[in-house]
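Write out the 3D structure for:
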Amino acid sequence: MSEREPRPGYFIDKDGVERPDRREKPTPPLSKYSFFGGQRKGVPFKAGGERTYVDVYTLPIWAVLSIFLALNLLDAHFTLIYLQRGGAEGNPVAQGLLDMGAGTFITVKNLGIGLGAVLFCMLKNFPNGRRGVILVLFFYQLLFVYHLFLYFNYRGIGIAA
């Protein structure tokens, strides 16, 4: 059985049906395929190589971004604990949000970081996007260790006993 050639701008799917090829144009950063029915897994791409947007995000990407979001939640949690123990917030933006209430602080902080996570997810195939995720995760881990020192009240860091 000879395979027929599709018309330009079309492809033959696994059932032998000719369908329009949406890949004639580059994948946009966000599209309906980003969340529902994406097909491209990132290999192989035309001459652009890895510096392209993709439709489907792998489990490791979701795991890294979930860790990123979990560390953000822990940061907010430990910040509130530290403030309840008599500490002070050094970030004037965060202090302004805290002045509006703990709920506002947590909501705005998580929305902002969540938008950053979405941006990192969209830019995962760009070298600077990957570097950004690694850098942010590194600093969040340092911040988490700092919060642990404050929480356990080590001398020289945090609140004196």
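The mean pLDDT is 77.
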